[in-house]
Write a structure and sequence with these properties.
It is built from 25 helices and 26 strands. By secondary structure, it is of the alpha/beta class. The chain folds into four domains: about 1-170, no CATH class; about 170-275; about 290-505, Rossmann fold (3-Layer(aba) Sandwich), CATH 3.40.50; about 570-765, DNA methylase specificity domains (Adenine-n6-DNA-methyltransferase TaqI, Chain A, domain 2, Alpha-Beta Complex). The strands form six sheets. A nine-stranded mixed β-sheet has the order 11-10-9-12-13-15-14-16-19, sandwiched between helices.
């Protein structure tokens, strides 16, 4: 009886181990079609699988019950059959039974792999995977040795193909898996009282120790931390980096960590740490997953996402003959990206790659732990003897002045006035380049647009050529940090010619999106298109373009006029934009219906006298090209009298400011300088770009610009202009604010179809506003139907549309 209970417990532990192994490689344990795995008897819900396994029991006289079947949920086909046993010594039996089940499925027309798992504890189990070749089963191997992990979906897709390889390379699990494992490890480190800023180093130390020892470290609390430090030290010494041997270590006196380290090591082993090769920048990717737990920018560095380092290495066309320098190398992302590109472009062996790395990749990092993380990253990729120096690139006498052909860098972003500005790192990077070498650096947007940086930008152009600017997504460094950035591309030693065309691009979609503090894959990645356009000198509307620098607008940013071409809104975009504007207007009317009726009364009774803006102000001088904002509208500045809003007293005059909410309303005040509607207001500061249409007389602060239709232009076109400006919001920020010149060239679709679409989209908001005003009228206790009609007549023309309202007016007139 006790033996049976013990056996069942062992089997349950084996099941837990299997689940952990599957989850670590990104498999969803739910049944298809939601998930990927059928556990034990679940396969019987499929008539085809049930029939195939009907006589596959161990005795051959009944249905078999494999531990699990991994399914291709799209094809509804088995990809692998798994059998588990409770003790490691039973691996042969587990594999034989898995092959028996798989043979039955082969006979039914499928071609699954067979996986045997034996053991229950974290460090005492065996796992073997075999593939049927002809009538025999052959081990799936890595570098000629049987693999000891369950492949990811991508790997299984390649290996399971009939006639495909039996050799496999370990793949990085999906980012969702890494994030989940990071959560678990972070919790273990929190329970171990490891401070935020030390957690990445602890994880990296355990990873390096597992890799260097091939998993042969003690797992008991008395020895595990000592072994981790010993293996890390030996790894650095073997790589010729003895000066960093004690920079990456764990606290051996931490008793709580002694207890938790075994589970952390197990999690990392599940992620294939012990079998990493030069094909995976795995430490860098895992480090990024943990960096969000370090309290943001704890050690003063933003670590560049790997898809961006790849883009920059490709832009610079790094080859095996280039000497690449990173003066602020962090964990080595740019050096790794160059290794990847060289391997990819030149098809080199690992030994050849190591030889190139030793002399051609140079990095500087003065923070000891980060420098150790960088070297560990290179060790895990097959080489730790690179030219990575723990030194300050700005002062080191080992700095390779004039030797590099390519500089790639992401300089530390300053947090205080005493911090080194990024332009100093860029200048140092240029000093490291030979003439006509290429520098690509990630820089804060402020360096490209702020006026106080203009002198520096002018100096760069006198000595070097600006090749390109690529504005990166605002969320690129989130959740680690909020930073608006761009890639600056310079060619050293060639003064910039006025006629030289510069590549400008704005990337909104880099193939990832932020979800629950993790950036996950999404469709529509623009980076390949941007890279192709850079090399083919192609322009893509709303994405990238080529143009000489505009001497009248000194921004180094795609927001500047004509750098990135715009395109007219489609009808669908017009509809979406007008619908949003209509909702904003109706919400404003509903909220302020009483105040708007009072405003109408003051206008009607002559207490307020709205003036057409063209009678009191001069429009901004613009080019006025056909079918553009400048061609269809006059653009005016706001009212200087409203610059200081603090002196305003409550009253009945509507005042519009740079607010991005409530249709731009700042409030109702005593202000006699009313402007006659309709017109559009466009904030130049504040909520930059949140344009609104104003259909009530109002005052407008000088933080806004005012668009007024030119003669013959229908007022409905104001909504189209606002929608177009909102479509281009990406161009504007506090460093690149809206000006008339920066919006006048936006193309505007015109014609009866557009106007009719605007009217259609505004009909419903108009009816909502009409009823809101009726309710407000009742609140004001209007005396007669004639008075009601007068109030209604003060409404904007768009509000008067709708049969129901017309019938109400007729009824009131007949009373």
């Amino acid at each position: 009886m006790m033996a049976a209970i013990s056996l069942r417990r062992s089997e349950r532990r084996a099941e837990h181990l299997l689940n952990d192994l599957l989850i670590s490689q990104g498999w969803d344990l739910r049944r298809p079609p939601q998930g990927d795995v059928l556990l034990q008897h679940e396969y019987r819900n499929s008539a085809e699988l049930a029939e195939a396994l009907a006589k596959s029991s161990k005795k051959g006289d009944g249905p078999g019950v494999p531990e699990a079947i991994i399914m291709d949920r799209d094809a509804n086909a088995p990809m692998a059959v798994i059998e588990a046993k409770p003790t490691a010594s039973q691996i042969g039996r587990a594999l034989a039974e898995a092959q028996g089940y798989a043979d039955a499925l082969w006979d039914a027309g499928w071609q699954p792999l067979a996986i045997g798992l034996a053991g229950t504890s974290d460090d005492e189990f065996e796992l073997r995977i075999t593939k049927r070749v002809g009538t025999k089963w052959k081990a799936v191997t890595y570098d000629g040795y049987p693999i000891g992990w369950i492949p990811t979906k991508a790997d299984l897709d390649r290996v399971a193909v009939v006639g495909g390889p039996t050799e496999i390379r370990p793949s990085v699990p999906p980012i969702e898996v890494l994030a989940a494992r990071a959560d678990e490890i972070n919790q273990l480190l929190r329970e171990s009282r490891v401070k935020d800023e030390f957690r990445p180093a602890v994880v990296a130390a355990i990873m390096l120790a597992l890799w260097h020892s091939k998993g042969k470290i003690r797992r008991d609390p008395a020895g595990i931390l000592r072994d981790i430090n010993s293996e890390c030290r030996d790894a650095f010494i073997a790589a010729g980096k003895a000066d960093l041997a004690r920079s990456l270590r764990v606290d051996e006196a931490n008793d709580k960590l002694k207890e938790k380290a075994r589970r952390i090591a197990t999690i990392l082993e599940r992620l294939n740490v012990t079998v990493l090769t030069a094909e995976h920048d795995y430490l860098g990717q895992l480090y990024e997953a943990f960096f969000r737990y370090t309290g943001g920018n704890t050690i003063g560095q933003y670590f560049t996402p790997r898809h961006i380092t790849k883009l920059m290495a490709d832009i610079c066309e790094v080859t095996k003959d280039d000497t690449v320098l990173d003066p602020a190398c962090g964990t080595g992302g740019f050096l790794v990206a160059c290794m990847d590109r060289i391997l990819r472009e030149h098809h080199l062996s690992r030994a050849q790659m190591v030889s190139i790395v030793k002399k051609n990749l140079i990095g500087f990092e003065d923070e000891p732990v980060t420098a150790a993380l960088c070297v560990a990253n290179m060790i895990l990729r097959g080489d730790g003897s690179t030219g990575v120096h723990r030194a300050d690139a700005l002062t080191s006498n080992r700095y390779p002045t004039g030797q590099a052909s390519v500089v790639l860098m992401n300089p530390p972003f300053p947090h205080a006035k005493t911090d080194t500005p990024p332009e100093r790192f860029i200048e140092r990077g240029l000093e490291g380049l030979r003439p006509r070498g290429i520098l690509a650096a990630i820089v804060p947007q402020s360096l490209l647009v702020k006026r106080e940086k203009q002198k520096w930008r002018d100096g760069i152009l006198k000595r070097h050529t600006l090749r390109g600017i690529i504005a990166l997504p605002d969320e690129l460094f989130q959740p680690f940090a909020a930073a608006t950035t761009g890639i600056l591309i310079l060619e050293k030693g060639v003064p910039h010619l006025k006629t030289k065309e510069v590549f400008f691009a704005r990337v909104d979609n880099d193939g990832l999106k932020l979800k629950k503090s993790t950036r996950l894959p999404r469709d529509g990645n623009q980076l390949p298109t941007v890279l192709d356009a850079y090399f083919t000198k192609r322009s893509v509307p709303r994405l990238c373009g080529w143009a000489p620098l505009d001497p009248t607008d000194p921004l180094w940013h795609p927001a500047a006029p004509y750098y990135v071409p715009a395109s007219p809104l489609t009808l669908s975009e017009v509809g979406d934009g007008v619908r949003e504007l209509g909702r904003a207007r109706s919400a404003f009317v509903v909220r302020h219906a009483v105040e708007l009726l009072r405003l109408s009364g003051d206008v009607r009774e002559g207490r307020l006298l709205p003036q057409r803006i063209e009678t009191i102000k001069t429009p901004t001088r613009i080019r006025g090209l056909p079918s553009t904002i400048g061609g269809l509208f006059d653009i005016y500045g706001g009212q200087r009298e409203l610059h200081n809003k603090e002196a305003l007293v409550d009253g009945s005059t509507l005042v519009i400011s740079a607010s991005g909410t409530d249709n731009g309303a700042y409030g109702f005040f005593e202000f006699p300088g009313l402007l006659a509607e309709p017109f559009a207001t466009v904030p130049g500061t504040g909520s930059i770009g949140q344009a609104f249409v104003q259909e009530w007389p109002c005052g407008v602060t000088d933080h806004c610009y005012i668009l007024v239709p030119k003669r013959g232009v229908a007022p409905e076109m104001l909504y189209v202009a606002c929608a177009a400006i909102r479509q281009e919001l990406w161009r504007f920020s506090y460093g690149a604010q809206i000006t008339p010149r920066r919006i006048e060239w936006f193309p505007i679709p015109t014609g009866d179809e557009v106007i009719n679409l605007v009217r259609e989209q505004l009909a419903s908001p108009g009816r909502i506003e009409a009823f809101a005003l009726e309710e407000a009228e009742d609140d004001l206790d209007a005396k007669t139907a004639r008075e009601r009609l007068i109030v209604i007549e003060a409404k904007p023309e768009s509000v008067l549309r709708g049969d129901e309202l017309g019938k109400k007016l007729e009824r009131w007139l007949s009373e």
